[in-house]
Every structure is written in C-alpha cells, then in structure tokens.
Amino acid sequence: MKTAIGWGYIKKDSTWLISPLFENIELGRMSFEAVTPKTSIGNYSEGMVRFIDHGRWGYYNEQGDVMIAASFYDAKDFSESLAAVKKINKWGYINKKGEWVIQPQFADAENFREGYAPVKSDGLWGYIDKSGKWFVEPTFENAFKFKENFAAVKIDNKWGYINTHGTYSIKPVFVEALGFKNGIARVRTSDGWGFIDTLGEFIVKPHYLTIGLFSDGFARARVDEYCVYVNINGGVVSHGPYRYAEEFSDNAARVKPEKLWGYIDSSMTWLLKPAYDGAGNFVHGIARVKVGETWHFINKKGEHLFNKALFTEAYDFNNGLARVEIKGKCGYLKENGEWLISPRFEFCKDFQDIFITQN
Length: 359
What we know:
- By secondary structure, this protein is an all-beta fold.
- It has strands at 7-10, 16-22, 24-25, 39-45, 48-53, 56-60, 66-72, 74-75, 83-87, 90-94, 100-106, 108-109, 117-121, 124-128, 134-140, 142-143, 150-155, 158-163, 168-174, 176-181, 184-189, 192-197, 202-208, 210-211, 218-223, 226-231, 244-245, 252-256, 261-265, 270-276, 278-279, 287-291, 294-298, 313-314, 321-326, 329-334, 339-345.
- It has a 5-stranded mixed sheet, with no helix packed on it.
C-alpha cells in the first residue's frame, strides 16, 4: 500500500506489517523508475521480502522485522530457501539467516528451481547445485531456470532444452524457447511461434506472430492484424477474428473485435456482446468492466452488481478481493460487495500469500 508517506505492507485487518517508508515498490526485477530509488520494497517470496535502503539490499521476514540487514549491492527473491545476492561485483547465495551458503564468485546468478540454478562465469552460463558445485559447466550463451525437469538453453544462437541429467532432451534448433508448463512449451522458429511437447514434437505448428499460454483448454494467437484461439491439437477454434483477445479465465475470455470489448465462452460464442470500453477477467463469476470513464462489476448475465456501485478504477478479483479506487483513494472490495478496507490509500496492490515463491 502507498500512503502520503510511502509504500509499505498491511495485513487484512488493515494494521501495518511493514511501515510505509519506501519511495517505490517493485514488480519483478524492475522498478517503476528508470533510476533505482533510494528506498524500495519488492514482493514477498517464501516469507521474505527484499528491500533497498540507500543503495544496499536486505530482507524483511513474515513478521515485518528486518531479518537480513541491508548490505548487498543487489538481491533477488528467495526460492528453495536460498537467495542470489551480490557482494561488490560477484554473486553468491545466502540462506534466510543471511549466512553465505555459496560464496560470491559468479558474474550473474538466477534463483534455484528444482535443485539447480543458472549462473554466469567467464561470459557463459552453466548450472550449479545447492552445494555450489557445477552441475553443467559454463557452456551456454543464455540459460533459464528449470521447469518441469527441463531448462531452455542457448548455444550457437539457437535454443534447446536440457534435462536434469544435464544432457540435451531437445536439441538447440529454435530461434526462441520458453519454459515448459503442463508438458508443453512455446518456441519460435523462422516461421513463427508454436507449441512443442517434451519430445520436441510440434503440437501447435509455428505459424503465429505471438501465442499465449493455454488456459481452460485454449491459447490465443495472433495472425497478421487479428487474434484467434487454438486448441491443444493446434486447431483454430474461434469464430473471430478479433483485434485483441485475452486468455480464458473462469470459462470466459474478453475479446475486442473493433472498438468495444465483449466476452466469449468456451463454445466460442458470445457470452456478452461487445459493449464495454474496458474489461477485466471473470473470477468466480464476477468481472470488472468500463463504460465511459467509470468501472463497475458484472456477472455473466451482464447484470450490474454491488448496488450498481461505480469506481474511478477497478482491478480483477484476486484471492476474494478486488482493488478499487474512488475519488483518488484505493481500498479492497469483497466478492459480496462489502468493504474489507474502505478506500484510504494513495495506491495499493493485491494481497500476497507471503510464503508463495514469486518467480
């Protein structure tokens, strides 16, 4: 949350977990500003949240206490109980007590996932285990974290995948390659984006300018100036085309054929025909929509909910709460339309599960 003083964290009873003392809040690795502010705070991950205080990074714990003093030149979120941190010009890894587990020795380092972490040494990337020993010697021009026992790696300007034995499961033949999710991964060839399985076989041919993740059995893809939806077999199933299309959520997807947004269902027919200047995802049968300059919430029949309340800004429901803004102040609305916390903050973000890994 942000007050006139700065950013901090609150609990659901509206008491402060971490006082609002920070100029900025980070989303991922990048701050809102081009120049790193003197003070900034990140997202919680595994019960720890990193912060920067006058050029040095440290960590708060889940009680809101400074667990690790601000002493590092850079820092990343905790993952698998370790965090990559930078001491002067080298990266290493600490535990949640702030103790070195792997001494600073790398030019760059990413978080651990599935027991291994990509690190950079002498201009190339490799992988280490949690003892700091090389699992795969520095070989790659670039390397991503493991996901579902595969890691995308780049060598000779082509991307492929190694497995948890450190050998190639899918040879480097792609222009780009992303992580696996539910046994499939997005890759790009000279013909475009598509999906492969764990054997490296295409299940969605690489025909598309861009392609999104599968959600509710469908993935959105762009062809020329329009978007379509494809199924897991690679078939185009939408009756669009649409100028803009978003992922399915709660068995509905928001699409924009021309000037206005509407919603389609999983049969690719109109759930709600285009009528909105802006639209969010359905979550538990509730979506935010914009008409003119104001937002309100609707159900899947298009009915205006919460006594037809209007908001100057609104966001999708997340864990049973939606952030909304009225007259320049932000608060939290429950799914029954009642306030959990009435508008009182300058800005606010979604509540987090403190112990979830963010990366």
